[in-house]
Structures are given as structure tokens and as C-alpha cells.
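Standup, Tuesday
Yesterday: got the pipeline producing C-alpha cells again.
Today: sanity-check two examples.
Blockers: none.

Example 1:
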Amino acid sequence: MTILNKYDYLRFVIIAFLIILVDFFSKKWVLLFLFEIPRQIIITPFFNLTPVWNNGISFGLMSSQPEAVRLVVPILAIFVVMYLVFQLHIQKPLQQIGSAVIAGGAIGNVIDRILYGKVVDFFDFHISGYHWPAFNIADVSICTGVAIWIYVIILSSATIGEK
């Protein structure tokens, strides 16, 4: 457990805000250049920028229930962000950073749901005709934050086992 100070909150807000900004402006760019006149930009033989409207949650999960997702997911995301903020005082510093990264990604996708009713996805990785579901910066942030949390938990478990 760490002693939380105002700088921990400030770091959380700055990290989350930067992710929200990068996510928002990347989506605005692709809306202008990929969605306006639908097109795909081929970057490499395995990676494209492809316009995709996602009615589901991360990576297209639950896209068959768009109304439930549109109403429930933003509320759930806000509760998760609030939980992460209220739990900052018991998180290790690296875990606090992971929480900020998750919060930034969650809020980024909530903004899409408020503005468009669905999420703008555009990163398209594929191999031999098999495509990973399209995703965006917010999705990457959420996954990165979770990976940081897992790392901290595993590292904490390893150090507890050594004692």
C-alpha cells in the first residue's frame, strides 16, 4: 500500500487525459480520411487502416446486442473508472499508471458512444485472409493497462513467495 498524494492524482489525470486526446484525434483523423469516402489504407502486407463501426465492446464482442451495449457499457465504464480512482490509495505506483491507462481508454470509447452511438475502430491486422477484429487506441490502452496490472500482481506474488 502506498501513501497517496496530490501528485499521484495529477499523474493519473495527465496520463488518462493524454490517452483520451490521442484516441480522440486519431479517430477524428480516420473519420475524415477513411470514413468520409470509405477506403482502406494498406500499410504492410499484414496491417491496414480500415474503417469499422463497432457496435459491440472491445474487438467487436457483443456486437449482436448493440442497444444493450450502447446503454450499459458507458455506465459500466464510468463505474470502472470511478473504482480505479477510489482505489488509487491502495495501488502500487505502477498499478496507478495502469489504472490511468485503462481509464483513458475506457473514457475514449465512452466518448465515441456518446458522439456516434458506436465506436470508431481502424487498426486491422491480418494474415492469410484471417483478420484480428479491428481496434483503436482506446482498446490498446485498456489492454495495456490490464497487462500492467497483471505484471504488478505477478511481481507482487513472486516477492511475497520469496519472504
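Example 2:
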Amino acid sequence: MTEPQSVLILGGTSDIGRAAAIAFARAGWRVTLAARDPQALSRDAADVATRTGTEVATLRFDALDTGSFAGFVDALAPLPDAVVSTVGLLGDQRRAETDLDHASLVLRTNFEGPALILGLFAERMVARGSGTIVGVSSVAGERGRASNYVYGAAKAGFTAFLSGLRNRCFRAGVHVVSVQPGFVRTKMTAHLELPGALTAEPDMVGAAILAAVEKKRDVVWVKGVWRWVMTIIRALPEPIFKRTKL
């Protein structure tokens, strides 16, 4: 009997992380959720298990504690077949403009932490000769906008990191996926008025992540319309773009 594939989901207590866990569990994968809050981890693992009939393991992981990353990865035996990072924090743009601690939190949560931990996993997978890495980025990283440029800058860095990692790891048999969800109806965006045609539900993102892993896609736009929206936004000349209210 073939051993089921395994996936580790970082940021596993997020709405997207939980949706991805459900999608992978229903597809027969062994799922481990990793996040900072043990109580939330236990609750969400139980929820996923109830919905899928599959036992879900949990690990404590803090995306801001970069000093713990090497020990966290080294303690995994065996290394999972796939690692998915759904770690993220929208933050408050206005606050980030004057509160450097808050700006740092947004930058570190969306770029530094996810990039460094996925880079470590990439090293181990390259040595093994197989594996899949998935990073959930954002269309906000496609061009800096006045309404969220601190968050957008972090996601732009993460998108570039994933692109470079994919290019580097390709010949070593390691697949790297960049996921661009666009707006998603989650706890993180509950205070925002989201446009229906451009907004995805978490289960749609979870299904897209699973499909990208199984079909070895490189860049995934969860709602295809975002590819064209961002093509137009990127093409706007700077003298025009700086006058927009995006």
C-alpha cells in the first residue's frame, strides 16, 4: 500500500490555511497544521478532522521567531512532501506610516518570516531531490498603491522571492508555486467592503492550492480576472497612476 503524501501548512489557523487543510485532507493527504496559538491549532485541527474524517497533526510555529526556524525544520522527520505558507497580516496602512513597530510587523509577517522558512525547506528538499513549496502572496504586490503600500511592498518581495526560488529549484526536482488570491472573504478582511466579482471564498483558494500542487502549476490566479486587472494597473503610466485613488 502506497503511503499517502504529506503536507505542512504554516499559518494553519488562518481561514485560507484551514480551507487548504480541508482540501488536502479530502484528497487523501496527511495534514499537519502549524501556527503560533496552541488553542486555535487544537480547535482548527479538530474542525478539519470532523469535516474530513482524517486525523490532523499540529505543531507550534511562530513566523516572527526566525531564530527557531532551523530547529523547527530539522525536527521534522520525515520532511513533508509539500509545505504551504498561508502566513500573512494585512495590518493598517495609516498606522504603519507613523508607527515603525507596526510597519515592521507587517513587513516581517508577510515577507521576512515566510521567505526565510520556505528558503530553509527548499534547501532540505533540494538535498532530497523532491518536494513542493507553496507561498500565498497577493495581487497587492503587483504595484504599490497608496491604500496599502507597506503590505504591498512585503508581498512584492515575497512574490519575487518565490519566483527566484522556483527558478533556482526547478532543476533539482523541487516545485515552487506562487498563489495570487486577490480579495478573499476572511477574518482579516471582515472590516472591508469587498467587490463580489473580484472576491474569492477561502474554500476556493484552498482548492486552487491543492490543484496547483497536484498539477504542478507555477503561478496561480485564484480568480482569473485579477490577471487582467493587474495587467491594466501595471501598464498605467506613472503620471496617471499617481493620481488614482487605488
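Quick observation on example 2: The longest strand covers residues 174-180. The CA atoms of residues 62 and 198 lie 31 Å apart.
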